Amino acid sequence: MNSVQIGSALKPSSFSASPLSAVCSSNGNVEVSRVHVRKIISLEHSVTKIGRLITLNGNKYITDIQRHQRTKTKFVANAASEFSENVHESECFHPKTHQKSFGATLNAIYKYARIYTIKGSALSIISVSLLAVQSFKDFTPPFLLGLLQALLGGCLANLYVVGINQLSDIEIDKVNKPYLVLASGELPVKTGILLTSLYAFLGFCLGWRVNSWPLKLGLFLWYAFGTAYSLDVPLLRWKRIPALAATCLWSVQGAIVPILFHLHAQTLIKGRTLLLSKHAIFVSGFMSIYAVVIALFKDVPDVEGDKVNGINSFALKFGQKRVFWICIWLLEMIYGMAILIGLSSTRFWIRLIMVIGHGIFGFILWRNANLVDLESNEAIESFYLFIWMLYYAEYLLVPILRF
């Protein structure tokens, strides 16, 4: 076997159509069992240093070499090498170390938060809190501080819930959602555990310090149901049982946020008696059904991983298409109810907003549902995010629903 240095092997003068061999030693020579070098030449005064691709035990390292330009010459080198197991990579060459940058880590943490759920929680808390306001005089510093506490506490609880769910579902997500940061390895599991523990600690500290019993109770129940839904220990992991899974999501979206956080907002207004208005009851009923829809729909694209891991979801039991259309009809039903309630209002502008607004939501939902390719999980997941957009839009209407 001939011995040549990798530098000389790749010089323009040495290119040939025949294979070359080289030996790796401590002085920088590289053992190459197969080097296939093709030379594509359109010569007019040119010398180019090229990027080379070297395969080491199945791992590809690409070294970019700056190109020194002269006109119209290209060299393409494809080098494939097999090294013996006892040869250290550092003895042969020194590839650039690809350590994850601080920005990349922050991006992974951002994706770990499942930000679309954070948006929903923040918007819902603000909306039900504003529903308690009856005049501009109610916007006092204590009210704004209490709203900030509720907003921070709710977001921390949401971060904890999505975090523990991802930590508990890594193997499932490798099948259903391999793009998630824990399933893909973009974020280390240890980092996920630390972040989720931090969210729990900060949330409990905030809940301990506030004087509002509705907020204390709301945060405690949010953490409790989120843990029961995901944690894989005896008597928990309620997501395996469809009815319990729906109960967990309903408890947050249908009771904790629209009722307890609304009562918390009332405690911040001086002289206000704690009372559930008919508007708050409407929001609770509406969002209870919406929560059931989200609980059912979120499993529609996940039947493959759920089947492998023993999660007996409604979508797995009754079929994706049937559950998909059950969700659509449930949403259309509550939009219809909202229109009827709007028509009964004595205030013209409330009647106008509720009828036209929910009519538009129902029409857009039906139109988009009929465009979904139910054979494509990607299309179903995209539609699931669209349902969240409608969720956001509904909460934008909540503060003015004073019929």
Automatic annotation (TrEMBL):
<protein>
    <submittedName>
        <fullName>UbiA prenyltransferase family</fullName>
    </submittedName>
</protein>
<dbReference type="GO" id="GO:0031969">
    <property type="term" value="C:chloroplast membrane"/>
</dbReference>
<feature type="transmembrane region" description="Helical">
    <location>
        <begin position="243"/>
        <end position="263"/>
    </location>
</feature>
<feature type="transmembrane region" description="Helical">
    <location>
        <begin position="213"/>
        <end position="231"/>
    </location>
</feature>
<keyword id="KW-0472">Membrane</keyword>
<feature type="transmembrane region" description="Helical">
    <location>
        <begin position="187"/>
        <end position="206"/>
    </location>
</feature>
<comment type="similarity">
    <text>Belongs to the UbiA prenyltransferase family.</text>
</comment>
<feature type="transmembrane region" description="Helical">
    <location>
        <begin position="382"/>
        <end position="401"/>
    </location>
</feature>
<dbReference type="GO" id="GO:0016765">
    <property type="term" value="F:transferase activity, transferring alkyl or aryl (other than methyl) groups"/>
</dbReference>
<feature type="transmembrane region" description="Helical">
    <location>
        <begin position="323"/>
        <end position="341"/>
    </location>
</feature>
<dbReference type="InterPro" id="IPR000537">
    <property type="entry name" value="UbiA_prenyltransferase"/>
</dbReference>
<dbReference type="InterPro" id="IPR044878">
    <property type="entry name" value="UbiA_sf"/>
</dbReference>
<feature type="transmembrane region" description="Helical">
    <location>
        <begin position="143"/>
        <end position="167"/>
    </location>
</feature>
<keyword id="KW-1133">Transmembrane helix</keyword>
<feature type="transmembrane region" description="Helical">
    <location>
        <begin position="275"/>
        <end position="297"/>
    </location>
</feature>
<keyword id="KW-0808">Transferase</keyword>
<dbReference type="Pfam" id="PF01040">
    <property type="entry name" value="UbiA"/>
</dbReference>
<keyword id="KW-0812">Transmembrane</keyword>
<feature type="transmembrane region" description="Helical">
    <location>
        <begin position="348"/>
        <end position="366"/>
    </location>
</feature>
